[in-house]
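Friendly challenge for the regulars: who can give me the structure tokens for this chain first? No prize, just bragging rights.
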Amino acid sequence: LDLCERERIDALLSFMDQDVVVLSGLRHELQQRGTVPVLPPNDLAVLCLDKWLAYEFFQAHALETASTFRDYESALDAVSACTIDFPLMVKPRFGFGRANTFLAHNERELDVLFHYQKDMLIQERLVGEEYDLDLLCDFDGNALAIVPWRKYSSRLGETEQAITVDSPPLLDFGLALVKALGHHIGPMDVDLFVTGDSIQILEMNPRFGGGYPVSHLAGADFPALILRLLRGESVEPRIGDYRHGVVMMKDIVPFGGL
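First reply, four minutes later:
Bragging rights claimed.
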């Protein structure tokens, strides 16, 4: 807050999930200092970080998602009832970047991994092709831009290879999600699995995601749209306004190697 006031910061956003939660709770204090928070409301930031609350939200809005369990016994009951099967994902309820995310192949592994730390969840392992949506909403929660892309490679949750795709169903899914959220502000990265006609949502990250460069290269230019919003300009929605088939392949360049 002192930095924003001292440096006369016009607007603030974040690239870290935990920071989004903290900063979104300081909306009033930031605005008092003349800084516009390009951040979702705090309740939405918490919803996105808390995988259990997100699961309940997806169910309440009829969005297909992975079956998720807060306790070990309920997951075993689901396995016995054949509603889910091994291997199963085990992850922190408040995790990010796939840290401490494991794959349990049997009951013994599930027991060990679930008790690895507090607040672990057991989740059905989704199968299918991995896709993402880059979303941008204005300050009233309206969708301005949606870009779907297929993920080919990632490391520790960071997308390394992706290609933009022409997919009206994914665009429609993005619009339905924005409507369900109701009041998101700024960028959002959404993780999806697609199998045939089925679109399943796994996570929402209310920030720029690691795969945003492919959307930017395809012409989305979220930063330019955000700047226009900050200037008070009228920004018309650009749903589907991007180039298809744009490929992103990240590389590791040693410092000083350019």
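The longest strand covers residues 143-155. The chain has a mean pLDDT of 95. Your move, everyone else.
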